[in-house]
Amino acid sequence: MPRIRPLSAAVVNQIAAGEVIERPASAVKELLENAIDALATRIDVDIVAGGTELIRIVDDGEGIHPDDLVLAVSSHATSKLQQSSDLFDVRTFGFRGEALASMAEVSRLKIRSRQADQSHGCELEVAHGRIGSPHECGCPVGTAIEVRNLFENVPVRRKFLKSVATEFGQIAEQFTRVALAHPRLHLVLKHNDKMVYQLPPVDRPLERLTAFYGQELTDQLIWVESERAGIRLWGYVGHPSVHKATRKQQHLFLNGRWIQDRTLQHALVEAYRGLLMVGRYPVAFLFLDMPTDQVDVNVHPTKTEVRFRDVQQLFRQLLSMLRTKFLSLDLQSRLAVPAGQTFSDRRSAFAEPAQRPLGAPNTETRTPQFEDFAQPTAAQTDFATWAKDQLTRWTPDAPPVFEAAADVGVNEPEPAPIDAPLSADSEHFTLPSPIAPPDAHRALQIHDCYLVVETELGMTVIDQHALHERILYEQLRQRVLSGVVEAQRLLMPVPVELTANEVAVLLEHGELLNRLGFGIEEFGKDTVALTKHPVLLGRLDFPQLVRDLAEKLDSTPALERRDLLDALLHMMACKAAVKAGQRLSAEEIEALLRQRHLVDDAHHCPHGRPTALTLSRAELDRQFGRLG
């Protein structure tokens, strides 16, 4: 067994490089942050061969004192920390004193720097950790750093780099994050001597978003803002019609630093629950301004993971901000007609107000200005009041909705006929008859799937299954919250054959199923007995539904109780809703359309699909040439 001995400085720096400098993009990130810490107003980034041959970053910041050049490339030497307590109040982007030393160990690095009070600059070269002698040179005020042949002396690391295009794509991503977080910086990015981005300073991140993601996306971004206890959360989120297959376009910035946080990502997903299809993710560009002593950034060398002092408060603030905003908007999907009106014609409603300092009172009233937005209904106001009350008790570990109601039980009335009439063609359609509105709907069913409805402003095409699914989901959810899920007790229990594992799963979740109106009892080795079922679901094939419930419970064991309950409600509503291809009578169509106005979130089904698309009268007239 070899004796214990200290590692050489070269090995220590190479180990650190493995954590801090994972690829060329990591070096670019660290150098950009150093330039920002130096109070630069302009940063030029030149890249050759995806950063493997050359990374050159030039800034006009404060520069480095000639006597500090050697220290700048030494391990754990920094101007940004003085004592250990500074780690709990970090106000700069860099602070570890590892990045330059790590780069210098695995590349050929050159630094030229000059401070404003110096008549000349100073230059230092480091080759694979061997530090040369500083010497005078001519250069402008600021710092220029060149990193050549990254990982030249670590062939194993160099071998695992991706293609030039991939590595430059990663660099462009880091550049984008800095540009979004610091719109007042003049930033330039070149690759192989070709201009990629030339970004003059601007006042608002929205202009940078347009430069990176295009007008089509930014026209569909919604401004959001919230401030509580000195913590300001603001930025842009995408309209629910804008969604992605991954979370890649979810950006969160903390005091100008791009970060990742699972709790805040979860809050974002919760805010869009029911507005997006399963497996799709919202677009968001959110900025969090908070006191530095409320967060610990010394978690990982890359500094993308942080710890918040009160992460539950941030969860509630983000969720409340988005939910409140969405309640004030008309999120109805619109039919896309060639050459029709675009969101850019109505962009003012999404724009943010003038910037105000953190802590300044928010005295502005922002009212949407176009027809896509509507004032909250009385039902929406009631829901918002309830939601705000519940938000004060929500936590990341126990999100809102179902756990808000205590002692939710099941009301089991005597068997009684269902109120709504049934037709031979729609035995599952059991909507109760509401009070009729003054005007009857003029609706037409086409393809036994869609309902075409005349409206005051034009026409709406409704997906009958999606709308009925949303209505049933909301009715079930409200009954669970109120503890009154009407259940039909069966005179003769219905045996349902299952696998032994499915039987065990159903019995394990017996209390949860009871909340939903199901009675499940053990009935032999591979069989359970269904003793009751929810009245609202009508005449379903309940044995099959029990099998589906068992499969769902077995396939999602890791879900929290609240999420599991929600998933079961989604499935039940989908199974019970009127199907595509099912002919509806005129009375059933009328009942369905009347129920639509009693649901706050009738524009999307529980899985996030739109329930209806609208086409304005003006657009119809334009398409048929009736506008002049």
Write the layout of secondary structure elements.
Blueprint: H1 9-20, H2 24-37, E1 42-48, E2 54-59, H3 69-72, H4 99-105, E3 108-114, E4 121-127, E5 130-131, E6 135-137, E7 142-148, H5 155-159, H6 164-181, E8 186-191, E9 194-199, H7 205-213, H8 215-218, E10 221-228, E11 231-238, E12 243-244, E13 250-254, E14 257-259, H9 262-271, E15 281-282, E16 284-289, E17 295-296, E18 307-308, H10 311-327, E19 333-334, H11 378-391, E20 443-446, E21 450-455, E22 458-463, H12 464-482, E23 487-497, H13 500-508, H14 510-515, E24 519-522, E25 527-534, H15 542-555, H16 561-576, H17 586-596, E26 612-616, H18 617-623
Parallel strand pairs: 1-8, 13-16, 19-26
Antiparallel strand pairs: 1-2, 2-7, 3-4, 3-7, 4-5, 4-6, 8-9, 10-11, 11-16, 12-15, 13-14, 17-18, 20-21, 21-22, 22-26, 23-25, 24-25
Briefly, what is this?
The protein is an alpha+beta fold and 628 residues long.
Q: Which structural class is indicated by helix and strand composition?
A: alpha+beta
**Could you describe the largest sheet, including whether it forms a barrel?**
9 strands, mixed
| CATH architectural arrangement of the largest domain | 2-Layer Sandwich
For the secondary structure, the number of strands is 26
Helical residue percent? 25-40%
CATH class wording of the largest domain: Alpha Beta
- Kindly provide the radius of gyration, computed on alpha-carbon positions and rounded to a whole number of angstroms: 30 Å
Average pLDDT works out at 78
Under CATH, the homologous superfamily of the largest domain reads Histidine kinase-like ATPase, C-terminal domain
